[in-house]
Description:
CATH architecture of the largest domain in chain A: 4-Layer Sandwich
Helix content of chain A: 10-25%
Oligomer: homodimer
Structural class of chain A: alpha/beta
CATH topology of the largest domain in chain A: Metallo-beta-lactamase, Chain A
Shape of chain A: globular
Strand content of chain A: 25-35%
Amino acid sequence: MYKTPFQVTILGSSGAMPTSKRHTSAQLLKHGNKLFLLDCSEGTQIQLRRMKIPLMKINHIFISHFHGDHYLGLPGLLFTMHLLGRTNELNIYSPPGLKKIIKTHFDICNLETSYKIIFHEIDKDRQTIYEDTTLLVDSISMLHSIPTYGFLFREKPLKRNIKKGHIDKYNIPVNQILKIKAGGSYTTPNGKVLSNEELTIAPPPPRTYAFCSDTGYTESFTGQIEGADTLYHEATFMKEFSELASKKFHSTTTEAATLALKAKVKKLIIGHYSARYDDSELKSYLDEAKAVFTDTYIAEEGKRFDIG
Amino acid sequence: MYKTPFQVTILGSSGAMPTSKRHTSAQLLKHGNKLFLLDCSEGTQIQLRRMKIPLMKINHIFISHFHGDHYLGLPGLLFTMHLLGRTNELNIYSPPGLKKIIKTHFDICNLETSYKIIFHEIDKDRQTIYEDTTLLVDSISMLHSIPTYGFLFREKPLKRNIKKGHIDKYNIPVNQILKIKAGGSYTTPNGKVLSNEELTIAPPPPRTYAFCSDTGYTESFTGQIEGADTLYHEATFMKEFSELASKKFHSTTTEAATLALKAKVKKLIIGHYSARYDDSELKSYLDEAKAVFTDTYIAEEGKRFDIG
Lengths: 308, 308
């Protein structure tokens, strides 16, 4: 149904601290042949190599906030891109302050990178921070202890497709095809007008991916992400720790699932697990969320999910 | 022969960039029950967890220089120590400038660590930067593109041991034992004088570990590390790239081995391999070095070497 691949790969699923098996927050989002990095925790460049993802093809990096587990892999990745002789511009979207951090690292070793880095500062909610011919990205305000933004990736509506066989059937000339694709009708040599609806079929609906981490439970962005094909929502704790979660501006399994339900999303991925849980406990984790929202999945290193 | 364990564990063996299997520069040196971290590259905290090394017991961290592959794991490790509620002071030894980097990271997320960090700046060659009851650490000037120091860990000379059986044989009272250990003789109730040499045996010689990375080939510190029990010397390239190595202030297999030979060390470990070499090429790597210095070993993640 969809021609353009749209999928997310989990590079790191752990919360504040890594474990011997789980890396901290990072995801690789692929849309068509474009690669977007969402968060860039310590070790992200190693995870990219392990998963054979070509790190030089990443041109856009989105950083949710400046807690160590979400951005500390960035300096290393930037150094590596330089060592590999990158020349393409790199765009980084984050709350204000990143440029100073990166400059401090570069200055101490007199580094001038082989490529240009463009720092895009996010300072408000529902700001469209990225746009290309097929995709838009908006900021989503998270409820956290420091300025933190989630990211809503939404496809632009696709054009209607000409029905298979109609070009041959009505012998439509090439120069008319683009017009029909743009919404026009077609008049046959006999003067018969074929409406656009008649000639085309509706495209599949635009797909959306909402990345929401880190955040305490809040319904403030439920409307913004409503109907998303896939929602990634942090679930640092199991439900028994709801008080602790709230105090630390994090969410529980049940809260993430409740939000998925209220926002009427189609699929929920949970992650950002506290290091107190070992891998064998993730089954109970999933069960707690599924009890509220059936279509829930567990983020695990290397897992790939199709969006829509 | 030696009662105190003295060993180094390789946490990362890769040069400037990590590979899917090799982490960048970091080693854990254990002397008795003290743990010293030498360099702290990206992912070091994960490597420590994997190797079940208790990261909270590390009280002294030595950073050779500020190229990304030698220190970018430090902010993450410091964050984790805070999250784990560390209260013990942490000492970090490095060229000047580290405090500013760490402060920049802490400031952006309003972090005040639960423990005190003491930054010790190294700014000259052969400076004794650390001393305790059993061990000394001196700086070693490396030949590199930015200020870089190696580290010479040397045990203090041990006291002579009283010969087994002599305490009983001569019925030496307890209060005399400490005097003998301090170098004194003993006079028996019959007036017979037993010399210290007669009563004691020489302790094993103090052991030394020299960590030399990153550096171009130089004989400037050959005298300082002479006779070291174990020398770790970088060998970024195989010998065919000696010109490139020199240009980039790095060494080849042959150069590292030549230095080991000239400095009359007992054992050589080589590491800091360029990412161009995959693991299967390390055998040839080792062969090149062994052709010059027989007792050479290859650094590999998780490998542990006894010093002396």
